[in-house]
Structures are given as structure tokens and as C-alpha cells.
Description:
Elements: H1 4-16, H2 19-25, H3 30-44, E1 49-51, E2 56-58, H4 60-88, E3 92-98, H5 106-118, E4 122-128, H6 131-139, E5 145-148, E6 159-174, H7 187-190, E7 195-197, H8 205-216, E8 223-226, H9 230-238, E9 244-247, E10 258-262, E11 269-277, H10 283-304
Parallel strand pairs: 3-4, 3-5, 7-8
Antiparallel strand pairs: 1-2, 5-11, 6-9, 6-10, 6-11
Helix pairs in contact: 1-2, 1-3, 1-4, 5-10
Amino acid sequence: MLDLRRLRYFLTVAEELHFGRAALRLHLAQPPLTRQISTLENELGFRLFDRTSRAVSLTPQGQHFLPYAQAVLEQVERAQVMADKLAAGSAGQLALGYASSIALSELFSQALQAFAQRFPQVQLTLVEGASVSQWGQIVDGRIDIGLSRMQPPEELSEIHTRSLGDEPLVAALASDSPLAARAEVNLAALSEYPLIQFPTGYGSGLNEAIEQLYRRNDLPLRPGPSGRQITSIIALVAAGQGIALVPSCTQTLARKGVTYRPVTDLGASAPLLVLTRSQGRSHLVEAFLGVIDELFEAQQATMRT
């Protein structure tokens, strides 16, 4: 195994082609430097320098070996820089889980962009999944942060939850539906139509919020077709298969044949939650949470003005 210190000595002498000047740069006396170079030559099995009383030059073997020694030391330096960044939490990997209905939110896209700008050497992995599926993935470490619409049960004390408020629901309607002609709609009118949702048993927090809304208003919920993504739900609406209640951010999906209308009923909203492990959060997790908090506070300040 080559000694990295001796490789550095070799490069310095190769740059100076003078043992005295190289020794000054390395803060060594010349005799110890000469001995270290001799030891390196013995390890390699060939001479690195031709020495005379008046000049020092690289041997042909030394010239050929030089770029390899430089590459090794440059790689070591890069490794040290990366190790320092990992220790400081400015590099590494971060797995972010998110519910389909959150992917279109402005907060989500802004958080990803802001975090990537601040931590360009962090590899972000996005994992789409229902709210319920995120719980187990956070507990076992498959994801570091979850953006969810469903509060975990109390017995899952390993999960820490913070709320980012509620997002209003809007009705997604086929544009040729009589309801689309209204400026706004209420749940009583919507309950007469089949409701397109995520599949039963999928573990959707949006489903849970909508079903609670129907129950609170003592209105029947007519099940319609289902889709596993918010985009497929909107496609079913466009096909005239029913209506959907979706977060207001979904309106960015300006699909032909679909009209969005505000819902007037109180409590027509879905929560937005950030889930992490309760203990042992990494520097990167804390950094991403800080980004989300900054953006959320700025968003709230804008709404107040």
C-alpha cells in the first residue's frame, strides 16, 4: 500500500525539481525528504529522479508515474471534501415520500427547487405513495420525509407530524355538466353524482377527508370509478364518469373537458402534513424541514396581506 504522504513528497519534488526548495515547501529538512523519496522508490521498484550535484530530473518511469500519483491525491482531496460535506449535512441522499394529490401543490414544487439550489450535492429521491403507506416507510427508514394527508394513529409514536394547514377542496366537473354552469357548488348538489376517488383500501388521506365531509353533512356518497393517481381521476371526470373533489392545486391540470368550481360547504378541505421519524433525524431532514417552514410562512404572510 502506497503511503499518501510520500506521494505528496514526490509531487512536490517533481514540481520543484530541487530537493532543497521542496523541503522548504514541505517544512522538512532536506535529509528526511531525501530518505522518504528513496523509501518510495524502493517500494515502487524503480527510480523516480535522476540526481546530480547540479540538477534533479524525472526519470522516464517517474514521468510516467507522475499523472497517476496526481490522480490519486486529487481523488483523496475530493473524498475529503465530500466527507466534510456529509458530516456537515450538505451532501448525501434524501428520500421524500408524497401523496399523489400533493404533487401539484406550489409548496411542493417550490420546496424541491429551493432545496436543490441550496444543496446541489444532495440526491433527492421522490417516492409517490398513499398516505397510509408512508407510515411504514418512515418507521423502517425507506423514506426520510413524508408529505401526507392523513394523521398517523397515536400508537405510531415513532412518527412525528407537523401540520401545514388545510388546502381547500374544489369540485372537478365535466364541462358539459349542469353544475359546471354554476359559479360555485355545494356538497348537496355534488352528492347526486358518482364520486371518483382513489381505490378503496388504497390508504388515501384525501379519500378519508372527503368521506368525513360527506358524513358530517349527513349526505350519501355515491361511489364511482377509481384512479390511483390524481391525473387518472381527472381523466375519468373528463370522460363524464362522475365528479371528483380534489385539492385546489389540482386546477393546474387544465384538462380539456374539465371545469373546476369552489365548494361552499364549511370544512371542504384536506390537511397537508409533514411526517418524519420522531428521533434521529439527519441534518438533511432538518434542512428540508427548514425550507418547507420558510416557504409556508412566506405563503401565509402573502395570504394575510
